[in-house]
């Protein structure tokens, strides 16, 4: 997806309205229009990059440097017990808007959000093989 077709670029350009939380020269934060809990907030770089690994480290640093402060404000505002930080990358991972973004999702015990975490155990030796392959790709 290029920037011309991107809904978040249109929001950043002011062509589509949003409920703004925070803005500076590098990032914009606004409430998600389809929340999974009250206060569900998005944080996006103003420049268009599709996925996390496309985003230059310096810009990613700018985005991440604001996440804690915004998340704390969200948590306080909705009086939640906790929150999840989520960044979907790729359609298989649930990314619908192809402009890198972080979700801040307020959470409370037994709220039923993300109540399935399909954890399993590696077979013998597999964890080392996978780690070695990841290191080679760094
Ligand atoms: P993704 O699945 O790509 O990680 O999440 C995209 C998010 O953007 C969804 O949670 C969706 O509700 C939100 N979203 C999509 N279009 C709009 C919009 O026009 N305005 C706002 N505020 N949020 C949007
Ligand atoms: Zn965009």
Give an account of the 3D structure.
This protein has 138 residues and is an alpha+beta fold. The protein has one domain (3-137): 2-Layer Sandwich (HIT family, subunit A). 29% of the residues lie in helices and 18% in strands. It has three helices and five strands. The chain has helices at 7-12, 57-78, 126-137, and strands spanning 20-23, 27-31, 41-45, 82-86, 102-107. The chain has a five-stranded antiparallel beta sheet with strand order 1-2-3-5-4, with helices on one face. Guanosine-5'-monophosphate binds next to strand 2.
Helix and strand arrangement:
Elements: H1 7-12, E1 20-23, E2 27-31, E3 41-45, H2 57-78, E4 82-86, E5 102-107, H3 126-137
Antiparallel strand pairs: 1-2, 2-3, 3-5, 4-5
Bound molecules: guanosine-5'-monophosphate and zinc ion.
Give the helices and strands as they follow along the chain: HEEEHEEH
Beta-strand content bin: 15-25%
Small molecules bound: guanosine-5'-monophosphate, zinc ion
Give the uncertain stretches in residue-range form. none
Mean pLDDT, nearest integer? 97
| Tally of structural domains | 1
Shape type: globular
Helical/strand content category = alpha+beta
Helical amount: 25-40%
Largest sheet: 5 strands, antiparallel
**What is the strand tally?**
5
CATH-derived topology:
HIT family, subunit A
Number of helices: 3
Which CATH architecture? 2-Layer Sandwich
The CATH H-level superfamily is: HIT-like
How far apart are the first and last residues' alpha carbons, in Å?
A: 26 Å
What's the CATH first level? Alpha Beta
Report Rg: 17 Å
Strand order, sheet with most strands? 1-2-3-5-4
